[in-house]
Amino acid sequence: MIPLAIPDLRGNENQYLAECITSNFVSSVGPFVSRFEDMVATASGNLRGVATASGTAGLHVALVAVGVKAGDLVIMPSLTFIASANAINYCGADPWLFDVEPASWNIDCEQLANKLEEETEQRSGELIHQPSGRRIAAIMPVHTLGLPANMDAIVKVAKQYDLPVVADGAAALGAIDNRRPVGALGADLTVFSFNGNKTLTCGGGGMVVGDDPALMDLIKHLTTTARNGPGYDHDRVGFNYRMTNVQAAIGCAQIERIDELLSAKQSIRKIYNQAFAHIPGLSAFPDYSSPSADNKSSCWFSGVLIDEADQERVGSLLSHLKKNGVESRPFWKPIHMQEPYLNAPKNNLQVCESIWSGIVVLPCSTGLSTDDQDVVISKFLQTVSN
Length: 386
Ligand SMILES: Cc1ncc(COP(=O)(O)O)c(C=O)c1O
Known about the structure:
By secondary structure, this protein is α+β, with helices and mostly antiparallel strands. The protein has 2 domains: 13-255, Type I PLP-dependent aspartate aminotransferase-like (Major domain) (Aspartate Aminotransferase, domain 2, 3-Layer(aba) Sandwich); 258-385, Aspartate Aminotransferase, domain 1. It contains 12 helices and 15 strands.
């Protein structure tokens, strides 16, 4: 079986894990944690990073830190992994769901600007969503599959309405937009995930990056049970959300190879896109690279988009591929179709609805050989033509 996405742990992972054991530093106190924070912050173009137990924990604490409270709404795209919405829900807030742009699968910035204009008003210094009467507390764009959302447009709107921006960059470490690394595109905070299927993994883990010292201090405080000093003195309800030294040891070994791992993902995307772009009924995943290398997606997952007319075939396609030794997977079911969020405020979500069930993720491990990728492409094309 050619697997979908498995980690590549062929760097210094073994050595660094052994150091954790011999030094007896296995908890969140340990030298790899701060080393990993510094390395990720440098790679994302930020001054600081706070390592968390998961990307979801990072999103939650970031939203709390920018002031999201019970009853609020947070703007986000419907096409994302459920963790983005769950992090909002953990604050007692709800998502306000937006469509995505067909070319990028990222939040539709025109809809964002229009809806804020049409459906909000300022009341006593707060931005209110008129249909629900609820406060809008933040914007959470998602850099889908590691392709940066149109942050210039999002930040412009955020400034106009005085809203903080927490970017869900779960899979986007290493992406660049107009030569700027993904953490330096204007979000107040950006959050990465290092779970097992990410290009760089810690087994599990996350990181909040940003530049504002007070905000980053608050995040560190909140992730360490809001404890003041060595005594048991806590000034609010915090979280036990820190990454451990063991996770960070793996992360340090992974990030030492970031260029190699990203370029493997980017060439896998290029090969699939070339193979599928011109076949009727199929479309390529969003492409985002310029010859001058000013723009680059981190190309987390790759695969193919089946046109709307053929989407009912996707289930049988996946099982045929499995029988032929190729692991493949559908992609995220949008948030507005998920049981816990059926009643969340939402806009017209036509693009989400027309693409999500046609997205097929194909094997894209960083260690995938070109021979194996050729096998995947030919098995896939045989299966769709039957
Ligand atoms: C877009 C997005 N947001 C959030 C997360 C959550 O990250 P974690 O699994 O580290 O909690 C993921 C994980 O896959 C993701 O893809």
